[in-house]
Specification:
Elements: H1 15-25, E1 34-37, H2 40-51, E2 59-60, E3 65-67, E4 83-86, H3 89-98, E5 101-105, E6 109-110, E7 116-117, E8 120-122, E9 127-130, H4 137-143, E10 145-150, H5 170-176, E11 182-188, E12 191-195, E13 201-206, H6 212-217, H7 236-246
Parallel strand pairs: 1-5, 5-10, 10-11
Antiparallel strand pairs: 2-3, 3-4, 6-7, 8-9, 11-12, 12-13
Helix pairs in contact: 1-2
Length: 258
């Protein structure tokens, strides 16, 4: 077992900031798509991407308006984002169907092939917990790229088999012949996970300061974390944008604490 040392340059960035840049990196090759990000860290990641590596992505106000750029509360002199488009809820389904959208969702459970559950915990007939329902997960995973954000990596979330499939995983997508199915990455507070050629979850990188063995121990199915590289850390420009422009109040620490 090899423990990856944390370079001095990585220690200045918090885990939350590493996670934000990992989320931002999911948009590097996306082009002009509607970014749908659920959660503080994913939303900050999309906004950071818009200002740096992915200027063509489209951000919304979370309701019906497309914006020219992200809100920048740390820059009082910056003009408010211009409203460039309008998409009421009924139009979102049309955008989803075209594939010109990219979603980073959460999950109550994810299994080794990326099947996601946000509906219930326990047996179908007598669940022990009712959650939010499938929501948009089936349509998202059938039509465009979907990434996942997990703020607390644990065996309760990463399970051998999900109690119900909300978002379609790689194994079921292949069986069903879903042509536009595309699972990207899973960003967690410990690591960035991806998918092997057989569709199974694999470790792409481990965050600075995290023992790789912790990633395996926090996952409810077999995961080989051997020799995983470090997740990249934000550069000076990205750190300034996160800390001073996009999130001066530090809301990122509500989801991930160091």
């Amino acid at each position: 077992m090899t423990t990856v040392a944390t370079p001095e340059s990585a220690r200045s960035a918090t885990t939350a900031e590493v996670c934000i840049t990992a989320c931002a990196d999911t948009y590097r090759t996306s082009g002009e798509i509607l970014a749908h990000a659920v959660g503080i860290i994913p939303a900050l990641g999309a906004r950071l991407a818009k200002l740096t590596t992915a200027p063509d992505i489209v951000l919304s106000d979370g309701e019906a308006f497309f914006l020219s750029g992200p809100p920048m509360p740390g820059d009082p002199g910056a003009p408010a984002p211009t409203i460039e488009g309008w998409a009421p809820f009924r139009r979102i389904f049309d955008i989803v169907a075209t594939g010109r959208r990219q979603s980073m969702m959460g999950a109550s459970q994810i299994d080794r092939f990326g099947n996601q559950n946000i509906s219930l915990i326990g047996g179908w007939a007598h669940p022990t917990r009712q959650l939010i329902g499938v929501r948009g997960a089936p349509g998202n995973t059938a039509n465009h790229r979907v990434d996942y954000w997990i703020s607390r990596h644990s065996p309760r979330i990463f399970v051998e088999t999900v109690d119900m499939v909300s978002g379609v995983g790689n194994d079921r997508a292949r069986e069903a012949g879903l042509e536009h199915h595309h699972l990207g990455v899973i960003v967690t507070n410990l690591a960035v996970l991806g998918y092997a050629p057989d569709g199974a979850v694999t470790v792409l990188s481990v965050h600075p300061g995290v023992d790789p063995r912790t990633v395996a121990a926090s996952t409810g199915f077999a995961l080989d974390e051997t020799d995983a590289p470090l997740t990249r850390t934000p550069n000076a420009v990205e750190l300034r944008l996160i800390r001073e422009i996009l999130d001066p109040r530090g809301t990122r620490s509500r989801e991930v604490a160091d």
